[in-house]
Amino acid sequence: MRAPFGARLTTAVSLRGPLCVGVDPHPALLADWGLPATAAGLERFAMTCVEAMAGEIAVLKPQSAFFEAYGSAGVAVLERLIAAARQAGALVLLDVKRGDIGSTMAAYAQAYLAEGSPLAADAVTVSPYLGFGSLDPVIELAQQTGRGLFVLAMTSNPEGAAVQRAVSGERTVAQTIVDEAAARNAGRSPLGPVGLVIGATVGRTGLDLSAHNGAILAPGLGAQGGTLADLRAVFGENLRFVLPSSSREVLRHGPDVATLRGAALRARDAVALAHPH
Fold first, then answer.
1. Which pairing describes strands 242-246 and 148-154: parallel, antiparallel, or unpaired?
2. Contact indicator for 149, 195 with CB cutoff of 8 Å
3. What pLDDT shows up at residue 252?
4. Of 43, 55, 187, 268, which has fewest CB within 10 angstroms of its CB?
């Protein structure tokens, strides 16, 4: 039985630094790397990322949609990426943002968190906007298998604010998500399995994160405009729980393995300098 996700993430960050690198093989990036927009090009991209970063970076975050776009051949590449990255020592956070109800959500949980599933990752992203309770099948299976999940709370896309910052009772919708996650993590050490997703570029959130005993994924560092100063402004004293995520800012340095690895390590070291211990 593996250790709980919160403990494994804490260890990975202490050994490798607080950085998540997104593996987002969109067609323009494949072209920049001189690769064809085919399953073969996709595999070359994915395995280059593993070779360059999985031995050094704490968390790799493949975006499932870019693999699914190639059908079964692309999903097979994703399966191989997950296995190879984990074998090299990286934690794999599969960015799928699934959100559904009942037996369908339970099936998604089986696909991404169950023992023996070829798509099983260390954690997944999920959407709570069908009600936080709809995530219970994922939370339960994550707890059973020592895996985790990151729940969308306050995202950087402009359309998100109308829902996430809307007031329900005396709290914003995003705050209710934070509070529900905190309740699921209560009493867990060093961190619970239920993380949050809060964009690095969202500005002042108004969120009370003091009770959230879990990790916070902060996408948007680098090419999307997020800076280390933004991280400090958004998260303040909660920055020690934050896992910043960068994708294009690192990936644009491929396809040379050494150059790509160097870019990832520079990003990691820059974040580590700003990260409280």
1. unpaired
2. yes
3. 96
4. 187
The one catalytic residue among 80, 86, 97, 171: 97
Write the CA distances from 99 to 63, 106, 119, 120, 182, integer angstroms.
16, 10, 17, 17, 19
pLDDT digits (tens, 9 = 90+) for 180-210: 999 999 999 999 999 999 999 888 889 999 9
Residue 14 lies in a domain: yes
The predicted model scores a pTM of 0.96
CB 212 within 8 A of CB 241: yes
Place of tokens 């089986």: 110
The fraction of the chain above a pLDDT of 70, given in percent, is 99
| 97 catalytic per annotation | yes
The band of 228, judged by pLDDT with boundaries at 50, 70 and 90, is confident
Which residue in 135, 146, 118, 219 sits closest to 177, CA to CA? Answer: 135
The reply to whether 275 falls in a domain is no
Domain of 155, in residue numbers? 5-269
CATH label of the domain that carries residue 205? 3.20.20.70
The reported pLDDT for the residue numbered 58 is: 98
| Distance in angstroms (rounded) separating the CA atoms of residues 142 and 274 | 30
Please check whether residue 137 lies inside any domain of the structure. Answer: yes
In angstroms, the Cα distances linking 199 to 28, 100, 221, 224, 225 are 23, 22, 9, 10, 11
Number of domains in the chain: 1
Q: How far apart are CA 122 and CA 111, in angstroms?
A: 12
Question: Is residue 277 in some structural domain?
Answer: no
Interatomic CA distance for residues 74 and 65, integer angstroms: 9
